[in-house]
Amino acid sequence: MGIKYQQNYQVPFYESDAFKKMRISSLLAVALQISGEQSMALGRSDVWVFERYGLFWAVIEYELTIHRLPEFNEKIIIETEATSYNKFFCYRNFSFLNEKGELLVEIRSTWVLMDKETRKIDRVLDEIVDPYESEKVSKISRPHKFLKLEQFGETRQIVYPVRFSALDMNGHVNNAKYYDWAADMVDFDFRKEHQPKHVFIKYNHEILYGEEIKALMSWKDDVSHHNFNDGSTQIEIHWGKIY
Length: 243
Hints:
Layout lengths: L3 E7 L13 H18 L4 H8 L1 E12 L8 E11 L4 E9 L4 E13 L5 E2 L3 H4 L5 E2 L18 E7 L13 H9 L4 H6 E10 L8 E9 L2 E6 L4 E9 L2
Parallel strand pairs: 3-7
Antiparallel strand pairs: 1-3, 2-5, 2-9, 3-4, 4-5, 5-6, 8-10, 9-12, 10-11, 11-12
Helix pairs in contact: 1-4
Pfam families: Acyl-ACP_TE (PF01643), Acyl-ACP_TE_C (PF20791)
Organism: Lactococcus lactis subsp. cremoris (strain MG1363)
GO molecular function: acyl carrier activity; fatty acyl-[ACP] hydrolase activity
């Protein structure tokens, strides 16, 4: 297991939704920020990785388990740990806790290093990840199995243009943006009585400025299935009743 890094946080107004809950896209954005702070503290900032190797970190998979969403103005604790890695993938966990230390949200994530010029995945070098003290393993974690497009039933479709505001520092669509696009396709009345309990996200191909996002949504029981651009990104949201 790796070195744990912890940060106190207070949920601001601009990261809260219409129900005074912290947005899931904000959870993902703050998680990235906290992981970046740990990397800087360990001397492995994004700038350090790029200047020496021409590489950048990219998240390719998330799994979120939501016990309770943090609320507006709530003081929480965010903890992260780079748990293990192999020659191509790095695994990092996040825990969002209340002030009593009770677990609110768990996030498991999978990361890769990408070449800035070729936009291809590169090998994980020990020199880059050694300071995190995460375990080197040979096993590759099995990814979540998403519903294939041909398994979608009745679908709803929306097309989004990729504008400048959707991009992050790596020049592609910010990964948190996809969740907002997916969840925005769910009816407001349903959202008033339900919230996500379990979320899976897989980024297969990056989308760049000027492209279009074709978003498809299909329902099966209490699960919404989302597919962007023929599988470039896949999202599965398990919804639960709010009591």
